[in-house]
Structures are given as structure tokens and as C-alpha cells.
Design brief:
α6 runs parallel beside α8 and α7 runs parallel beside α9. The radius of gyration is 16 Å and the shape is elongated. It has a single domain, classed as Serine Threonine Protein Phosphatase 5, Tetratricopeptide repeat, CATH 1.25.40. About 55% of the residues lie in helices and about 0% in strands. It is built from ten helices and no strands.
């Protein structure tokens, strides 16, 4: 991503941060490819940015609905570290938007980042109890993208250890 692209996308970035869907809705209507365009140097999409605030819930709802109307799999867009918007929600404890994402694309809970972590594991890692509870309900005990179940082997052991370390079971 070059500096000019970053500057061109600044209005979208600001709108995502400020929960201001109305100021950029026309951009997404005219240029639907902007819905999942990488708008930061870390390859984040507008959805990543909005979910990362844990306050831009209106923006998130609107962009998710637009994305679902074009291609639901665009909800799985990844940043440079392979994190989806659900990974962001898990890291910061944004259960509201995690529920929205999973309601539109249940398989997103199985997606792993470049280190092989699911959103469930990140919720445990960061001690996000409410989000962890929710993701435990929706993450299936079946192989994800990396061919492993999040509940068995090293991944399962990590999940238990991280949950205990975060004071989840106490």
C-alpha cells in the first residue's frame, strides 16, 4: 500500500473509527470493492478498523450487511498477520460484533491466522471472558483451515492453559 492510497482512504478510516456510516455510505455504493479493500499499512479493511474500536457498532452492522449482499466470504478478509475481523473482535472483547459476524458466516469461527490461532484462542489469550464464552459456543470441534481442531492437540492444550492463566476457570 502506498501513501497515496492511504490518503485516498482516510475518509473511510475516519468514518470507521467514529461510527459514521452516513458520511461514506455513498462511497461503498459507488465502489463496492472498497468494502474489503486494505486501507492501512497493516492491510486492515474498514471492517477490521471499525470492529477494533469496540464502539462503531452501527458502522459494523451496515458494512457487514453490504458485504454479505456482495460476497459473504469477504467477511473473512485478512490483514497482514492473517487476522480476520473476528480475530480483532476476540482480542478486544467485542462480543456484539463477534455475534454479528458469526450469524452471517458461521464458518468464520474456524478460520486461523498466520500463526494458526483461531479467534477463540485469541479471546482466551487476551482474557476476554464474555467473548470467550460466546466463541466456545460457536467454534466447532472440527478441523479448520489448518486441518486441526481448536480443541485437540497443541491447540486444545493452549486453549486450556490460556483460559486458566486468564483466570477463566477459578
Amino acid at each position: 500500500m502506498d501513501d497515496n492510497a492511504t490518503i485516498r482512504n482516510l475518509p473511510i478510516y475516519k468514518a470507521a473509527i467514529n461510527d459514521d456510516w452516513d458520511s461514506v455510505a455513498h462511497i461503498f455504493d459507488t465502489y463496492p470493492d472498497k468494502l474489503d479493500e486494505k486501507i492501512t499499512i497493516r492491510c486492515e479493511t474498514p471492517l477490521h478498523i471499525a470492529i477494533g474500536t469496540n464502539t462503531s457498532h452501527c458502522f459494523v452492522k451496515n458494512i457487514v450487511n453490504k458485504i454479505v449482499n456482495t460476497d459473504v466470504h469477504k467477511l473473512r478478509s485478512k490483514n497482514c498477520n492473517g487476522n480476520t475481523a473476528l480475530h480483532y473482535a476476540a482480542k478486544i472483547g467485542n462480543t456484539i460484533d463477534a455475534k454479528l459476524l458469526v450469524s452471517k458466516d458461521p464458518g468464520i469461527a474456524q478460520v486461523t491466522n498466520t500463526e494458526g490461532h483461531t479467534a477463540l484462542k485469541l479471546a482466551a489469550w487476551y482474557g476476554r471472558h464474555d467473548t470467550l464464552w460466546y466463541l466456545l459456543e460457536v467454534t466447532k470441534d472440527e478441523p479448520g483451515e489448518n486441518g486441526l481442531s481448536p480443541y485437540s492437540g497443541v491447540s486444545g492444550a493452549d486453549l486450556v492453559t490460556l483460559s486458566l492463566t486468564a483466570g477463566f476457570c477459578g
